Amino acid sequence: KNGNRSLVMDFLQTLPLQQQHVVYDGTAAFVVQLSAFFLAKPLLANNNRGLAWILSAVVSLLSTILAIPMAWSFVVDGFDPDVIYAEHRLATFLCNFFFVFLLLDLSLGSLYYPKYLDPLSGWFHHTIFAILIVILKWYKASNALAFAFVEELPTFVLAIGSIRSDYRQDLLFGFTFFVLRLCYHISLSSGLVTRYNIDHPVALISAGFAVLTSAMHLWWFSQWLRKMPSYLKAQQRVKEGRSKAA
């Protein structure tokens, strides 16, 4: 066993540092995410919708917490191209961790919750993000995406409400979405867009992606606002029903 372990370590040490990070981070991501999924699976045997959100809940919570230092540095220091188009160790972990999530959500979704694997928010979204991560890591610019991982907080709120309907918090979701995916995201995107022509291979790609995601977030928020009155009425009817039953 020690000989096999030595061979593995010797092999890993022959890899460039960036590839070593992929192996270490990817292994940790697979262990954490698969453990969370299969531990939750028996508890959600009759709730495929909830099962479909387990990975999203775990990954969005961890991504938000780990990305807070990067987001705070952006809020305090502003947009610095030398920092954005670089690769901090925390950023590489976040991108590797999220990349594994994209793969697992599609593969496990195909097996266990195909009904809830949406073509747009599932296959299209995950494929585009996976390609973006590969490009950013190729050019050692993971920071450009990692600064945005704090925006996963609304996903966590949505995931918890999808797993347990009595934990659904529409107003909290709307508030976190507005603050992070509109205000913060547009602020970050404006820096990318106004500097699209700087001398860096991913500057133009990042600017285009920023415009696309900003437009998508605005559209999603407008849809949420449009449906909000019906959500509030439905919640009020549920509360009235519970009070009568009590």
Architecture overview:
This protein is globular. The chain is mostly helical. It has eleven helices and no strands. It has helices at 2-14, 17-40, 48-52, 54-77, 81-84, 89-112, 119-138, 143-146, 153-163, 170-194, 203-245.
The termini sit apart by 62 Å
What structural category arises from helix and sheet content? mainly alpha
* Annotation, overall tally of beta strands: 0
Query: Helix content range of the residues, please?
Result: over 70%
Low-confidence residue ranges? none
Q: What is the succession of H and E elements?
A: HHHHHHHHHHH
Summarize the biggest pleated sheet: none
**Count of discrete alpha- or pi-helical segments spanning 4 or more residues:** 11
Using the alpha-carbon principal axes, give the shape. Answer: globular
Looking at how many chains there are and whether they match, the oligomeric state comes to single chain
Computed Rg? 20 Å
| Beta-strand content estimate | under 5%
Average the pLDDT over all residues and give the rounded result.
87
What is this structure, in a nutshell?
The chain is an all-alpha fold. The chain has eleven helices and no strands. It has helices spanning about 1-15, 15-40, 50, 55-75, 80-85, 90-110, 120-140, 145, 155-165, 170-195, 205-245.
